[in-house]
Amino acid sequence: MAEPHVIYEKKGGIGTITLNRPESLNAYSPEMRAGIARAIDDIADDDEVKVMIITGKGRGFCSGQDMKLRASQNPADVGLGERYRLSPAGWLAQRVNNLNKPSIAAVNGVAAGGGFGLALACDIRIASESARFSSVFVRRALTVDTGLSYFLPRLVGMSRALELAFTGDLIDAAEALRIGLVSSVVPQEKLMDEARALAARLAKGPPLAMQLTKRSMYKAQTMTLVEALEYETYAQQICLASEDYEEGARAFVEKREPVFKGH
User: Fold this and answer.
1) pLDDT tens digit string along 62-75?
2) Cα(213)–Cα(152) distance, rounded to whole angstroms?
3) What is the reported pLDDT for 67?
């Protein structure tokens, strides 16, 4: 029986998606794209899962589309039906970014093309010292996709983003940290420990407040200041009416760690 292209595991409030085509540096196949989508749907619908981690098996995080497969972008070809019908090439980035829970990319190796976009679609990126990043599209006479046009300028500025897109240069983990693409760089052998430790910390947080914080941050990218302030006020009113807010206040008075339930 063939190995699944995506391995999904749930433990301790963390849903971990592992891309599992190590022989191709985890290049996308139709099965992989659909497997990621299914796992994200499961995470979104499962109240027990608080945080998502995406990583890759072997030496690569994700090297983008597998050019050898010339894969159709219709999931019906792999028996997944209308629910996973694809539209633009960046559909997967939207799915990741729209997740109503924190997401972490544990970048263990090369993240190129659509794999680069997948990493940037996550809320937080932790890179191993072996991580490499490239917007390789131009070398295939293609424009960027998988959300790179949206995420990359916001993270590193337009000038640097266009330089990376025009050249397709491969940058290492240290440079990625310097320009703000990743939050931290850790030794390869400690990558998943660090990612899980951060995820476990986030999993103990108040789910509703974190969901609204994420939504506020991303919405503010396309809002005026007044619009952002208005949305913050709206979100804060929801939090103030929650049971978790009451629990946080009680825990502060009682000098103990709060136990949040997302209500």
Assistant:
1) 998 887 765 444 44
2) 21
3) 74
Return the axis-axis angle of helices 225-240 and 243-254, rounded to nearest 10°: 70
Amino acid at 130: S
Across residues 211-227, what is the average pLDDT? Answer: 95
User: Domains of the chain: which residue ranges?
Assistant: 6-203, 207-254
Model confidence at 30, pLDDT cuts 50, 70, 90, reads confident
DSSP single-letter state for residue 43: H
C-alpha span between 243 and 23 (Å, rounded): 48
**Strand, helix or coil for residue 115:** helix
Split at pLDDT 50, 70, 90, the class of 92 is confident
B/e letters for 163-189, b = 16+ CB within 10 Å, e = fewer, are: ebbeeeeebebeebbeeebbeebbeee
In the CATH scheme, what is the code of domain 6-203? 3.90.226.10
pLDDT of residue 135 exceeding 90: yes
Is the distance from CB of 82 to CB of 46 less than 8 angstroms? no
pLDDT at 87 > cutoff 70: no
Residue 77: the pLDDT is 47
Q: How do beta strands 132-134 and 171-172 pair?
A: antiparallel
Residue position matching structure tokens 């972008």: 73
Distance (Å, whole) CA 33 – CA 6: 9
SS3 149: helix
Between CA 209 and CA 140 the distance in angstroms is: 43
Coil, helix or strand at residue 165: helix
Sequence-ordered list of residues with C-beta below 8 angstroms from that of 77, at least 6 positions apart, any chain = 30
CATH topology of domain 207-254: Lyase 2-enoyl-coa Hydratase; Chain  A, domain 2 (1.10.12)
